[in-house]
Design a protein that fits this description.
Blueprint lengths: L1 H29 L1 E16 L4 H11 L10 E12 L2 E22 L9 E13 L2 E7 L6 E24 L9 E22 L9 E13 L2 E2 L20 E2 L4 E18 L3
Antiparallel strand pairs: 1-2, 1-11, 2-3, 3-4, 3-5, 4-6, 5-6, 6-7, 7-8, 8-11, 9-10
């Protein structure tokens, strides 16, 4: 799926490069160039969260049933400056949350094929709150009322990661006690790819600060990680050696955003021939 998304974005990028060349030539003939600086505020549901490595160990050793992280509404804002017509530089920040809560019962067996000798009542609480901060560059070729754009950005992903297991066992001196396995802040490289369209208001309200609405598709990768299973090692007879290592947290996701944008500067420039 990621390859298909990348292919689509590359095709759009090539189309935008052609469009910007054509639109610049047309505007030069008119003799004016408009440069817009803006602030965009948006929200949208995030999809595709998850870590295959975490999920594999969680299901196999903790008997969990959940195999995906929840899709929740995320919020973001971008400051965009247009130093040259059709080329915009920006600073992007987002707030997003994901995770899951799961309650289930687990039979206690001394060995995999033996009869149960007790039962555990387990509640899992897993949460990631992420704050990616990225510098962006984008192409926005046309100066029409409906303005398309495509961009990319790099920066840092900051995330608060927590995982708590609450466990009650019917067996006395059960080695499995649960606990707070992770409660930390992780920082790692991040990047984004996105494309969208700005639906500007008509000419009667173009001078208004509130300039229009936007719709965009965006993928944000955040490489944050944590040693999820390190503190749980002593509760298992033969834990995997890799449990002491950090595991990708799964804080990356694809989103469809809807928002508004505000223009705070508008500078028409006359081109001298």
């Amino acid at each position: 799926m990621k390859k298909n998304i990348t292919g689509v974005i590359v095709c759009i990028l090539l189309h935008q490069i052609y469009t910007i060349s054509y639109s610049q030539e047309a505007d030069n003939k008119k003799g004016t160039t408009k440069i817009n600086n803006m602030i965009c505020v948006y929200a949208g549901p995030k999809f595709g969260y998850g870590s295959s490595e975490f999920t594999k160990n969680y299901i196999q050793y903790f008997d969990g049933r959940n195999n995906e992280f929840s899709a929740k509404l995320a919020f973001g804002a971008t400051l965009k400056l247009e130093p040259s017509e059709g080329i915009r530089l920006g600073l992007l920040g987002e707030f997003a949350q994901t995770g899951f809560t799961e309650i289930y019962k687990q039979q206690i067996r001394p060995h995999r094929d033996s009869l149960p000798v007790g039962e555990r009542s387990i509640e899992q609480q897993f949460a990631i709150t992420s704050y990616p901060i990225l510098l962006t560059a984008e192409i926005a070729p046309t100066l029409n009322q409906f303005r398309t754009y495509i961009g990319a950005g790099i920066g840092v992903g900051i995330a608060n990661i927590s995982w708590q297991e609450k466990l009650n066992s019917s067996m006395i001196n059960d080695v499995r006690t649960g606990g707070n396995y992770v409660d930390e802040t992780s920082i790692a490289p991040a990047f984004t790819l996105y494309t969208g369209i700005e639906l500007g208001f008509d000419k009667k309200v173009k001078q208004s600060i509130f300039a229009g609405v936007l719709i965009e598709a965006k993928y944000v990768y955040s490489g944050v990680s944590a040693a999820f299973f390190d503190k749980a090692r002593k509760q298992f007879a033969s834990p995997p050696g890799a449990w002491s290592e950090k595991v990708y947290a799964g804080a990356s996701a694809f989103a469809i955003n809807v928002g508004v944008f505000f223009q705070f500067t508008k500078q028409p420039e006359t081109i001298k021939k």
